[in-house]
Design goal:
alpha+beta, Immunoglobulin-like, four-stranded antiparallel sheet, 23% helix, 2 domains
Length: 132
């Protein structure tokens, strides 16, 4: 038979106090670690942000959306499901801000594809499927 140890109210309060203190020390140490590791993070203003498509699966005219914080040359290209290049959707100099590039998927066979945004210092891609 298991016998439960009886604790006094003072002992229970002391256990709760120690557990709370230990938890606070762990949270503070975790925040310090995140701050230390964040010092070496890459500056976000040097990169574009490519967003996913809102419709899944895609059909008809789709809108690819990306943002940039400075003027730069961008290439948006379509890749097959094996990541081999299929076609360049658009190559242009993008100004600061958000950009929408429309593309007609009616000429694509149904399946899975990737779209990739390339700049002079980055490549970022997203997956989407076509069901026309």
């Amino acid at each position: 038979m298991i016998q439960l140890a009886a604790y006094t109210t003072t002992q229970v309060l002391l256990i709760i106090l120690c557990a709370t203190l230990a938890l606070l020390v762990l949270i503070i140490a975790y925040k310090k670690l995140l701050a230390y590791l964040g010092k070496t993070s890459i500056p976000q203003e040097d990169y574009c942000v490519l967003y996913g498509l809102e419709t899944h699966p895609a059909s008809g005219i789709v809108e690819f959306y990306f943002t940039t914080t400075k003027k730069r040359n961008v290439i948006l290209e379509l890749l097959n499901d094996d990541l081999s290049p299929r076609s360049i959707i658009q190559e242009k100099e993008a100004s600061e801000g958000g950009h929408i590039i429309r593309y007609d998927t009616n000429n694509l066979p149904n399946g899975t594809y990737f779209y990739q945004l390339r700049t002079e210092n980055q490549k970022t891609m997203k997956r989407f499927s076509v069901a026309n």
